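Exercise: predict the fold of this chain.
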Amino acid sequence: MQRHENVLIQQVIAGDQTAYEQLYKQYSARVYAICLRLLATRAKAEEATQETFVQIWQQLPHFRADSQFSTWLHRIAVNTAIDSWRQDKFARLLDEADLDLIAEPAQELQLLDKLILKLPKQARAVFVLFAIEGYQHQEIAKLLQIAEGSSKAQYHRARQLLQEWLNAAE
């Protein structure tokens, strides 16, 4: 499978449209599922899926095979969906439990983005992975090489800090 995938990628880089269509057919359902989970509407998910594959077409020559193609593809899909979120005035970056952190999406999301950057490094990483990327605490713990309880504590700390900063900004 890996060898076939590498050959397919090289063919796409060389400009082979048929190979690109094959790559699209192989991964479009996975990308769509990611986008749908993040964006919650079919129309937005379809749009983000198409944008993801446009970006893949453009960025594939820069793909380094030091990670799996599916991992690279997943990252592009997640980033595309998050970008779509940020552009949509009616969508929220945060899950239902976090809606109390924001009042007016357009202005508050800009402020929230700035405040997230102020979070301590580990709290910021946990918050982004959990609240925005949708990872579970167990997965975050493995990724960051910390205890699952530390992930939960850092998330709680990040939410508290963001709440304080947002309240102070009002």
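Check your answer against the key: The helical segments are 2-13, 17-39, 42-59, 69-87, 105-118, 121-132, 137-144, 148-169.
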